[in-house]
């Protein structure tokens, strides 16, 4: 049952990545594109976490690489979203 749930989650996250990519490309405004990029970061982090869970199912050894990579994606995504929002609000990202 867990294998089916993981496969379904992979498909769902992949589909939402495609939807966010279409919004990133079409976007009409820059704020829409920034939100689509933020959504893509979150979905990429979810996919990496799913890979880590699937790796734990296959091999009983802990695969901390996937979880550390997800943490790195989360931090970079947060920082880039804050910088993008500051740029949209003020016109500069760094003071």
**SS element count, helices:** 3
Order of helices and strands: HHH
| Helical residues, percent | over 70%
The separation of the N and C termini measures: 51 Å
Structure summary, number of beta strands: 0
Give the overall shape, derived from the CA principal axes. flat
| Rg, Å, rounded | 16 Å
Integer average pLDDT: 88
Can you characterise this structure?
This protein is an all-alpha fold. 85% of the residues lie in helices and 0% in strands. The chain has three helices and no strands. The chain is flat.
What structural keywords apply?
95 residues, mainly alpha
Would you spell out the secondary-structure blueprint of this structure?
Layout: H1 2-26, H2 30-58, H3 64-90
Helix pairs in contact: 1-2, 2-3
Structure described in brief:
The chain is mainly α. It is 85% helix and 0% strand.
